[in-house]
Each structure stands twice: as structure tokens, then as C-alpha cells.
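An instance as discussed:

___
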Amino acid sequence: MCRRRPAGPGQQRWYRHRCPLELIAVDLLRQQLDVNVIGQLAVMQALLPAVRRAGGTITVVGSLGDRWALPFAGPLTASTSALATLAGSLRQDLAPSAVRVILVEPGEPSSPIRSPAPM
């Protein structure tokens, strides 16, 4: 059975379980979806009246990870895919209003840390 693992540096926003879907407890998957998808929708709904009055934009930060099914990443991939779909639906729902919805899916950062160490 897989247990909850804290997110590493740079992953504070996502609540994640790295586990094969066949082994994850359904309550842990439900908890992950609740935090990563339902929680974000709840915040958007709470702020939408103010955003609508200001004619603002809702920015949803997703992940490129929703495009690939990777081993042991099913729980996280499911939540990022759901969030991307939610953003797309919300964008269409709010199209008649002045509120825009954009989905940002950052890739891997370009960093010298990925370069080979000098010999």
C-alpha cells in the first residue's frame, strides 16, 4: 500500500502520491483529487465575483504531466488532467463574460544544474 509523500522542492502546490494505481488506497486518491482539483475550483468560485467585477483573468497553473501516462504517476496525472479539463470548461462557461481563463503548463526549467559537472 502506498503512503502519502510530501512534495519536494518546487512542488509545494501539488499534493501528490507516487504510486501504482493498483496499490493506492482509494481514500488517498480521493484526497489528492480533492486538494488538486476540487480545492482549486472552490477557490476560483469564491473569487469569481470579485474577478468578474474587475474584468480580470483567472490563471490556472497546470502541468505538462497531464499529457503523458507515466508509471507510478497515475494519481498525479489524473489530477493534473482533471484540472486542465476543468480550466477548459470554465474558460467556455465564462466566455460570454469579461473574465478570461488561461491555463499555464510550465515545462522543465532550463538550468545549469542539468549540465554535466566539469571534470
